[in-house]
Every structure is written in structure tokens, then in C-alpha cells.
Write a structure and sequence with these properties.
The complex is a heterodimer of chains A (112) and B (113). Chain A is built from no helices and eleven strands. Chain A is globular. With 113 residues, chain B is mainly β. In chain B, a hairpin with an 8-residue loop joins strand 9 and strand 10. The mean pLDDT of chain B is 94. Classes of the chains: A mainly beta (112), B mainly beta (113). Chains A and B meet through strand 4, strand 5 and strand 10 of A and strand 5 of B.
């Protein structure tokens, strides 16, 4: 089955700097790669996703890149703000066939 | 507004007792999932269902069961609670076909003493 590895497990950045979180997956048939943000004590919520037919997707300060050949994808957050502090999860699945498999999460701290 | 709700939000029980966590969604989603969240392990899939009377085992299904008798509900039962099942449990749902955004409930924190 699918296995998703996520790095780093913790990340601290100064406000205004960029943050990058990386994930690798094992199933070459996976074609859907979402990212979820979980604030302290809250439920995970989708912030951005990418499908295997594109290499990059942006939404304001957030971008995701996908390298299918290397089987890795990354989340990029620019101009970080204190409200970006949270745990971020990457996930992968064969869309329409298999449930999402999540990475272990990255705790991002943005220091003002 | 459509939503997904879990109950109870917090529960303390004793080893060996049967526990049921309820999950109810009003989106009319066919696909429902149970994950557990533990520090250092992220979100791990317990069981999932793609429709009424359909249930499937996930990565960490031992000691858990689910049943799907209608579209709205997927209760999770711990047959004989163990301390290793102390965790935060999240129910989630997704539209048809499986894919796209997963909507999570608020979570149920279970402590097994």
C-alpha cells in the first residue's frame, strides 16, 4: 500500500521568511496530493491540493509542487505570518480508488 | 449548513469496556472514514466505508469495528478498550466518487485507563 514520508517534523521560521515542507510517496499510481492544516485543538482542513496532471499550483502565499518522476511533492509558504503556525499534513491517494494516506505531520512555528 | 459531528467529544473509560464513538454527516456523502491521531504518528486510517453496508479495514483496524446502515452515520466501536487506544479520533467524509476534499469532524478524545 501507499506510504507517505514527511519532513521535517518541526520547523521554526521568522515571520516574513519562507517555509518548505517536503513529502515523498511510494505508490507510483497515486495521483492526488492534498495538504491539510491543523491549528491547535482544531480539526484538519484542506488548504491546497494538486493532481498528477500538473506540476505546480499556487493560491496566494501557498504553493505546492509535484515531481512525479521522483515521487515527491512540497508545500511552500511565503511571507509567513504568526497565523500560519500549525501542524501541516501531506497526503496521497489514487483518486477515486483508495483512501488518503497521511504523512506524520510538520509542526510549523512562525516567530514574530 | 451541512456538517459532520462527532460524539462524545471527550470520554474516559476503563480497560475492557466497549466504547462507541458516533459520527453523523449531513452532506449526504457516500464516503466516510475514521482516523486516529497520535503524536509522532500523524493521522492513521482505522476503517472506511464507500456506501451503505460497505465497510473496509484501514491500516490500524485491529480492535475496532464499524457498521454503515445509512448514509449519514458511521459509528466506530472499540470492542474491548485497551490503553493503546487512548487517542484522538477523527471522523471524515468525502463526496462521490472518492476524491477531492475530506471534511473532518471536530474529533473525539478517548482516554482508556
Amino acid at each position: 500500500g501507499e506510504n507517505v514520508e514527511q519532513h521535517p517534523s518541526t520547523l521554526s521560521v521568522q515571520e516574513g521568511d519562507s517555509a518548505v515542507i517536503k513529502c515523498t510517496y511510494s505508490d507510483s499510481a497515486s495521483n492526488y496530493f492534498p495538504w491539510y492544516k491543523q491549528e491547535l485543538g482544531k480539526r484538519p482542513q484542506l488548504i491546497i491540493d494538486i493532481r498528477s496532471n500538473v506540476g505546480e499550483k499556487k493560491d496566494q502565499r501557498i504553493a505546492v509542487t509535484l515531481n512525479k518522476t521522483a515521487k515527491h511533492f512540497s508545500l511552500h509558504i511565503t511571507e509567513t505570518q504568526p497565523e500560519d503556525s500549525a501542524v501541516y499534513f501531506c497526503a496521497a491517494s489514487r483518486e477515486g480508488n483508495t483512501p488518503l494516506v497521511f504523512g506524520k505531520g510538520t509542526r510549523l512555528s512562525v516567530i514574530a | 449548513d451541512a456538517e459532520i459531528t462527532q460524539s462524545p467529544r471527550h470520554k474516559i473509560t476503563e480497560t475492557g469496556r466497549q466504547v462507541t464513538l458516533a459520527c453523523h454527516q449531513t452532506w449526504n456523502h457516500n464516503n466516510m472514514f475514521w482516523y486516529r491521531q497520535d503524536l509522532g504518528h500523524g493521522l492513521r486510517l482505522i476503517h472506511y466505508s464507500y456506501g451503505v453496508h460497505d465497510t473496509n479495514k484501514g491500516e490500524v483496524s485491529d480492535g475496532y469495528s464499524v457498521s454503515r446502515s445509512n448514509t449519514e452515520d458511521l459509528p466506530l466501536t472499540l470492542e474491548s478498550a485497551a490503553s493503546s487506544q487512548t487517542s484522538v479520533y477523527f471522523c471524515a467524509s468525502m463526496g462521490y466518487p472518492p476524491g477531492g476534499e475530506l471534511f473532518f469532524g471536530e474529533g473525539s478524545r478517548l482516554t482508556v485507563l
